[in-house]
Every structure is written in C-alpha cells, then in structure tokens.
C-alpha cells in the first residue's frame, strides 16, 4: 500500500518535534539549567549570587517597610518590618532581629533593608525593656516571629516554615536561646553575643557566630568562642572573628557581616546551595577577618 506523501511528512515532523522536546528536557536535567534548579528548590529566590551581589548595599528586591507599635503586640516591644515589595516570586523566609542590652531597634536597623532586599521579610524589634536578659530576648524573638507569621499585615508574604533569628550582644545570646527553644528554626546568627550559659547541646539550628577581636564588653575568649565550641560539633556551624572591630561594630553597616549573613540565611532558610561557595572554604584571615572556624554546610 502506497503511503500518501503528506501523511509521511506530517509523521516525520511530529517525530522530529517529539525528539526535540525530549532532547530539551534531557538537556535541562543533565545540564542543571535554571529551570531545573528552580524546580528542584522551590525556595530559591533571586538571581545567581556573586561576590559583588552579596557585598552590595542592596540586593535585587525593592523593599517597603512598616512600623509596628508596641501597643499592637504582646510578648515584645514592637518594631519595624522590612519586606520585598513584589509578590511575583511567591513567599519569603523571615528573620527577627534583637538589639542588645540598653539598645533599641535603631542599633540594628541597617540590617533590615540590607537583608530584605536579598529576598527575606525582616523584623527588627524593640524589647519589652532595654535591660532584658538573653533568655527573655530569646522569648521575644520567638514572639516576634509568631506575630509576623500569624497576625502581621505581611503574613501572606511569609513561608512560616522558613524562619531565622539574629541578635546583637545580649540579643545575640537571645538568638541562641531562641534556637534552643524552637529547633524548627532554620538559621541563627549571633552578633558579638553575650550569654553566661556556654553550653548549647540542644541547638539543632545552623548557627553562624560573629566575634570581634577588640571586644571588651563581651570578649571573644569568654563569650563568642566558648558559645561556638558549646554547640554540637555535628551542627552546621561557623565562627567568624572580625578584625579591627569592637563590640559595637554590628551596630553600623558592615560588609563582612552582611555578606556572610546573607550567604548563611540563603543557604539554610532558602536551602540555596548557590551560596555555599561563599561559606566553604571558610574566609581566610584578611583586613576584615581575624580568624574563622567551622564546617562546610552539610548537603541535604
């Protein structure tokens, strides 16, 4: 039986189209193109990072902010929420940040837009009183996260399963307290932390600690270093000691703190392995880094 030439041509074209489609899918899968990576990690946000992008004063997202009165919340003292303006990329992870002893949210305000512009909802908080101790600050960080995810005007922008905490000084000590009390937290970053408790075997949250070589308020030998060594050795953990720095270095814009904090938060809150290149190997001693310790992030 003779085949009609038009039928044969259509079959050939269909077969060629099918072959091309299969090849495209296989190519994406094997080459790990952006489509494949996005499908593999639904939490990935923003373009591929570079050294300059993690050091930048602002990331790829435009940021809005809103003030939260202490009268409108319970368990902490209110604060300011910074968040990506666009909802095109879906929900974001969220971070609460506590100031230190005698300090207000203004002392850590620079971190709000800096981190939010990289694709996070960030809540810089005031504490109930400026004299609150680390355990109380830990409770207040968790109360702030609960407000963010359950009652705040931006709760619809947040993935409540991807949360982290940061804090300065006693707020840094409170960061560890929060991680101990809520193991589901995805990341913790204490900044020149102060806490009398040095042992943290309960912590399951990946933790990055910053110390300062010139810290006379919470010297690294009695705070940041033992707090780091007090974490489980099996934990994803790192310690970076800032060079030429003081206890109050985290209170103003700092590129070293920002670049490694962004990388840590991206890696552990967003599960974004594109940022591992900035965490492993650890930063070498330099004009800004006195020393570093830690392990390479465990691949999940």
Which terms would index this structure?
alpha/beta; PET_hydrolase/cutinase-like; hydrolase; disordered N terminus; hydrolase activity; 8 helices; 300 residues; 9-stranded mixed sheet
| Strand content bin | 15-25%
Distance between the termini: 59 Å
- Strand sequence of the main sheet, in spatial order? 1-2-4-3-5-6-7-8-9
Regions with pLDDT < 50 over 5+ consecutive residues?
1-39
Number of discrete helical segments? 8
Largest sheet: 9 strands, mixed
Average pLDDT: 90
Overall shape: globular
- β-strand number: 9
What is the C-alpha radius of gyration, as a whole number of Å?
23 Å
Q: Return the string of H and E elements.
A: HHHEEEHEHEHEEHEHE
Structural description of this entry:
The protein is an alpha/beta fold and 300 residues long. The chain is built from 8 helices and 9 strands. The chain has a 9-stranded mixed β-sheet, sandwiched between helices. Helix 5 packs across helix 6 (170-181). 45% of the residues are buried. Residues 1-39 have low confidence and may be disordered.
